[in-house]
Amino acid sequence: MVGMRDVARRAGVSLSTVSLAVNGTGYVAESTRARIEAAMAELNYVPNELARNLFRGRTNLIGVTIPTVAHPFFAQLTASLQRHLHDAGLRMMLCSTADQERGESEYIDMLKRQMMDGIIIGSHTNQRPEYWQGIGRPIVAFDRFLGEEIPSVCSDHVQGAHLAARQFLESGVRHVVEIGGPRSQFHDLSEAQTADGSFESVLSAAADVAADVAADVNDTTFPTVRYHLTFEREMAAAGVRCDYVAVEHVSDTSLFERAAEEVFRRFPDADAIIAPDLAAAHCVRLALRELRDNHDTGRRIPDDLQIIAYDGTPVADLAGLRITSVHQDLDAIAVKLVERMKEAIADDHASASASSADEVAGADGVSEAPTSVAASCDLVPLTLVRGETTR
To answer: HTH lacI-type domain location, by residue (predicted)?
Structure first.
């Protein structure tokens, strides 16, 4: 088997020079590097990646957890993440938690055992902040709060709510139906709302909207909840009825169609719907079918019924009409997640080096906590992309 010594002999250089060139750990003159690369090609020498990673204390492998790859939003985010991780010299190992029951715990175990350099958590977790902060390895959260020391990246959902609310209110809507995740996740709602999100409970708090909205929308571990809370309060302040239909499991894409059917069954007088792309597309399809079957009584889009999709994936363009959407910039989110991960890995290595230096110097074995990446959530702006489903 060809090794570095064989390459060194063929290139006429020392073993240490070949090691520097192969591992990229020191300066090697271009002419010397060219001779080494030529020798490697002649001998068909392939560097041992495992040995290189052990030497560097790196695997260049990043775990990514998402609820499911079957959902277009997470599929598109995953594609962007893989591309930008690759550009940063990192590889992605994906876990769809809906399809891998113990995926999260297995990935955390791999991280603790140095089999990964870091994990991006984009799936729901029941673990408390103390658990995540106690792991002591690079972790970055997407669209969720894992703890004060865990960096997080998410869309600016409060801005997204303002964009959608303004579009509806300026066009004079009177009854909006939201489709979203389970209300059980809204575990830290203000007293202004009840568990079922009924119109009456929200409307009764309209007088207090201006005073408490800023505090309430930030008092949650689920940033997406901020979009719903802000949107509902703006509707309530304007006297617009707002009802809610829940999709209990994001990993079951058939539930989005059922939610759309429930909206049309329960709220035939609604003149506006805001929903995730999949549900919004089903709503458009149902409205077009309703109009085809009952031309005189069916609701026309956008004259009688306006629909906004919240996500802005390509699904919003495939429903028969281009759906007006609040667009989340998934590419910008992926870029920011990778930036945060690189920072977290650098901090982790700096902390490890400092600990090693303390041990060599005869330190008492107590090291300072690693420098944390800023704990605040990085907000990525959203945009309203107008289509054919709003006035």
So the answer is: 2-56
